[in-house]
Amino acid sequence: MREQHFKDNFWNIDIISTAGYDSIIQHLNDGKRTCKEIEDFMKARATIEEKYAKELLGLSKKVCGHSEMKNSGIAGDTEEDNQTGHRGRETQGLRTQGNQTRKDRNSTLKRSLDVFKLQTENVSLSHLHLAQNMREEAKKLEDFREKQKEARKKVEQHMDALQKQKAAQYKKAAEAKKTYEQKCRDKEEAEQNMNRNATTSSSKQQEKLYAKTQQAKQTAEEADRIYSQNVSLLGKMREEWLNEHVKACEFFEKQEVERISTLRNAVWTHLNHLSQQCVTSDELYEEARKSLEQCNIQEDIEHFINLRRTGDKPPASVPYENFYNNQRSALTRSLPTAGRRAAAPPPPTAENDPLYSTVAEPGYSLIRY
User: Fold this and answer.
1) In angstroms, how far apart are the furthest CA atoms of the chain?
2) Best CA proximity match to 137, nearest among 282, 35, 53, 252
3) In whole angstroms, what separates CA 250 from the centre of its chain?
4) How many CA within 13 A on the CB side of residue 225?
5) 8 Å CB contact between 106 and 70
6) What is the model's pTM?
7) Cα 10 to the chain's mean position, in Å?
8) pLDDT tens string 125-178
9) In 3D, which of 75, 65, 79 has the Cα closest to residue 108?
10) Which residues pair with 338 in a beta bridge?
């Protein structure tokens, strides 16, 4: 199938018409507007990515898992020492491990959360890089649009001048034709008038009519010469305009091909950046997932126990203590020890005398029966 081109499809039978040329220019203006819209779209998308990246970066700096178990007391007196009071416990062996990494001293969940925050920060930086790439692509598109605008401006100015000249020359040729036709009618009228009066007028009148006819004939010939000259000049200008119109159509078509190709590639590159960002984000998140796979629940339980243990012996049961038993125990402890005078012996009793007991005897009571 034969390819279509601008130079073959934007003509008009009216010599002063610019409809075909105007249609091309309108299309090019619409294309320039499309370039500007895509350029603005990329700039807006870059702004969105930049804003998202900054907010994500700020989020990655916020506290996340800060209170998760850390062996922060390992270099000095641990909380276990403070709570149990065993400050004499040896910590020199633990102090020698002060150079070990935070990773070794934290729980597995804490390490995973640290990696999660780090990769979130890396994702935010990758989005900042994406925003920068988008701005660079938008700048390239802007430069391309301005370059086409300047190149097209020269051709348009040249074509506008030619079209104005062609229109002006066509107007002059049309006026010359109108004058020529009028002079021809004047000549014919003078000749007819002379012929009608050839037999009825005097010789003097015939001479006047002849002179007038000759004058009209010369005027018509001059008008014919001017008209022919203007038509010839218009023909030359038409040929020049035709050649320049073809060149302009070829130039405009070339620009349109470049514009479509550039926009296609720009959008393609834009989508490639977005796809690559998805891949980069997934790779960074995969690092966080790998860290989570290393999270060991039992290890974290044991880590907490080793870090914060307070002892392995539960408290003894609280005994019941009788108040009076305590009094008798206290009284027993208050009896004189060996070396002191012994207590007086009980008085002798008769067979029918009542028995008395002392407070030291078991079962003594102040209650009277």
Assistant:
1) 215
2) 35
3) 38
4) 5
5) yes
6) 0.68
7) 42
8) 999 999 999 999 999 999 999 999 999 999 999 999 999 999 999 999 999 999
9) 65
10) 340
